Amino acid sequence: MIGFGLRLAVAGGREALTRLVIIAAAVAIGAGLLLATLAGVNAVNTQLTRYASMYPMQTSGGHADPLWWSTREDYFHGTQIIRIDVAATGPHAPTPIGIPKTPGPGEYYASPSLRKLLAANPADQLANRYPGRDVGPIGRAALASPDTLLVIVGGTPDTVAKLPRARQISSIGDNTPALPETVVDLILGVIAGGLLFPVLIFIGTATRLSAARREQRFAAMRLVGATPKQISLIAAVEAAAAAVAGTAIGFILFFAFRGWLANIPFTGMRFFTSDMFLRPLDVLVVALGVPAGAALAARVSLRRVRISPLGVTRRVTPRPPRAYRLIPLVLGVAVLAFALVYRPPTSDGQTAIFLPGLLLIMTGLILAGPWLTMIGARVMARRASRPATLIAARRLADNPKAGFRAISGIMLALFVTSVAVGVITTIVANRGPAPIGSTGAGTMSTVFTENPPSVPDTVLTDLRAIPGVRSATVVRENPVRGNDRDGWVVACTDLPAAYGRCADGATVAEVPMSLMPFEQRASSTRVWPAASVTVGDLQRLPVASIVVGTDASVAALERSRTVLEVAYPTDFWVAPNVPGDFESDFANTLRGWKQLANVIIVASLALAGCSLAVSVVGGLSERKRPFSLLRLSGVQVRVLRRVVALESAVPMLAVAVVAIGMGFLAAQLFLKAQMDYTLTAPGVGFYAIVIVGLAACLAIIASTLPLLERITGPETARSE
């Protein structure tokens, strides 16, 4: 029977061969995307592991001499630079990954991207922060991405031991901190929910192509004596043959485009091509799972034939979906709303509320989809004024499950990405950099790990001599704290007018460390309360911060940062920064997730378009005789085209609106409960991507319509 099934698939005529090619092509695209998704997960995991290795845990023991290690953060124009200071305590100290030997005092290694940056910018803006000799590039084994800005600076054990976060390590590579599970779970959740489901829907739709036609053929075989087992075997062989060929082509497509995929900064940074790898388990899952899934789908699609050879001709209208399908959706929203009233104090407790709530909504959307499609179709039928609209609405209302099946993936993908984009946009808006041109955008402040007793006059003189610097203010520790008082003080005569003024009669004011309240903008009208410190006592207080006001130009900011880092080379674990710099890594990561969400939107919409195209082609093939009879009765071809277009486009557009709306609602509930933020609407780019993606889907559907005229000619209506 296997040989007979293969002969039917390959030599069963032009129709069978065409079906085989279409299914193989569809499976190839789906398998290629599935492989790219799995490789992307591996690449993200590798990238996070390498990033974590820059912050090793302290180790001791063994026979190796310990290596002093200190990791600090620096910035250049809003981009994070990771600085690692190392010092070997003996000849047997371990060597950091990616370099041939540990640099000595006055030497440093820099990543290729940082070396380009050093060469392209004036020394007083960047290179002066790393005095010494560049002894070579850092290899990719130590870099999270080709774009990573990393410098490994050599020093003496005494100097490195005094740096912030200094620790001794006796081995390299086995003391990398564990990855945060929540981050990895988020990655897998977003990818699985947003991309894998549409891929599987696409593959399943493709393997069911011309299912009705095959049902009729297999029913005929049953009538001449074939057993259900033989029919199932033939169907499985036909489907598996196309799926095997498609899977093989999918592997070829993946390796052909792997380098191109690696250059797309899905997480905000590019990947190394070698990081886009497949584990043996991934290969086995795709190589065996896709053909097995195709065979299973073929077996399921023939259940009517297995029951009875006459089952194909005894089709009845399926039961309409009921309103109880909305229950999971309502429960999910209720769970998220409950978090507004009660938020568990621990992260595990919060996860126990938010995760089930989101999963309930996702499940509810899939279950409620057919019911929503049926309600929408009935409304469309009542308001229909043209034959095409009425026919399309009646068909959707007759079998809403079939109409929703091909677009279920897009509904889930748009919901997941809407939640992600809504949350990310809101967090970046609340924690991101200060608005361009504002006073805050040009304000650079410091965070000393050990407060110096005073600031040399030369430092303030050098800062004020930089073109674009408007002020340099020393902020000191406030000896009186508590009761919502700011912990820092400044002389009223030193307070720049751009940051406010002192209360009437005050000589010393209580201010924030950066002269701006946390997450608030600078204001010249703000009035700072008087401090209980006198001007005479002020000079004896330790220095907490140096606040530099600039015109926000890159040159002024980076020169000021360089002057401060050179003056205090060991007093920072985070370099002097402007609002948003400190969160730049977090914000860049969030922007990377946002970009990943956009990619998922585009990919899922493209997959939905392909699924719809396959579904439309399959539907036309199955209904070509009724359409042919309609044409013989006088219905014009353009009316039939309109019917097919409405059947596909209306549910897709309605589903997109519902999914995005539910996504924003879930994001608002999450943000309000977790962070007390109000949802910030995504920018025009998000809507543009969705609209362009939907337009591409409609274009794909339109490309299948010319097939309608060719397959619904008068000869099709002839009785056989």
TrEMBL record:
**Topology in membrane:** Multi-pass membrane protein
Query: Quick one: where is this thing mainly located?
Result: membrane
Q: Which Pfam families match?
A: FtsX
Keywords from UniProt, A to Z, are: Cell membrane, Membrane, Transmembrane, Transmembrane helix
* Membrane-traversing stretches: 20-44, 186-210, 231-257, 277-302, 323-342, 354-381, 402-429, 599-622, 643-666, 686-708
Q: Which domain of life is it from?
A: Bacteria
**Where found, per UniProt?**
Cell membrane
Name of the molecule in the record: FtsX-like permease family protein
Q: Which residues form the ABC3 transporter permease C-terminal domain?
A: 190-304, 598-708
What organism, scientifically named, is this protein from? Answer: Micromonospora kangleipakensis
- From the UniProt record, list the coiled-coil ranges: none
Which is one Gene Ontology cellular component term of this protein? plasma membrane
